[in-house]
Design goal:
Elements (H helix, E strand, L loop, with lengths): L2 E4 L13 E3 L2 E5 L4 E12 L2 E12 L5 E15 L6 E12 L4 E12 L2 E11 L4 E5 L10 E3 L18
Antiparallel strand pairs: 1-10, 2-4, 3-4, 4-5, 5-6, 6-7, 7-8, 8-9, 9-10, 9-11
């Protein structure tokens, strides 16, 4: 099952900010370009924050990073571009890809924007296309996705009722 829902852009300025990682323990292998962080892991890049019990970060030859956070659940939060609103997500595993600008949430995944939310075994959020997708990601027992989408508020007309006497 696949569900496509328009979302809004993540804060664009975040891409140019450094990735800051705090954890109880770290192991960095420069030769393989793999870093592992364990215990109360907090990853921050601008307004984006990922939290988990463990995070494995790899870097490709072009300098793009791919991080996998594990937790029960791990969490993600990032400000929406030009709005005072955040996209939030949860899953037992979260994969963050700086090349594709995607975040994948696995196992009991939930992604929320304002009051809207989507649940499934796998939810992908793509900040470039403004779309997130949900599916059961090949589980042995087919599962359904669930979404709650609220209508957009109607804009005020800005015209006051006439008080003119006839």
């Amino acid at each position: 099952m696949l569900l496509l829902v328009p979302l809004s852009y993540a804060e664009k300025a975040d891409r140019d900010k450094p990735i800051d990682i705090d954890a109880d323990k770290a192991e960095v292998d420069d030769a393989k370009q793999i870093s592992t962080f364990i215990g109360n892991v907090v990853v921050t890049q601008g307004t984006m924050v990922i939290r988990g019990d463990k995070m494995v970060v790899t870097q490709d030859k072009d300098g793009f990073k791919h991080g996998t956070a594990y937790g029960h659940p791990a969490s993600y939060r990032q400000k929406r571009e030009g709005l005072d609103e955040y996209v939030e997500g949860y899953g037992d595993r979260i994969e963050y890809d700086t090349r594709a600008d995607t975040v994948d949430f696995y196992v009991n995944a939930l992604v929320k924007r304002g009051h809207d939310e989507v649940r499934g075994e796998h939810v992908t959020y793509n900040s470039n296309t403004e779309i997130f997708q949900a599916n059961d990601q090949g589980s042995n027992t087919p599962k359904r996705v669930h979404a709650v989408l609220y209508p957009k508020p109607k804009p005020a007309s800005g015209v006051a009722p006439s008080t003119e006497k006839k």
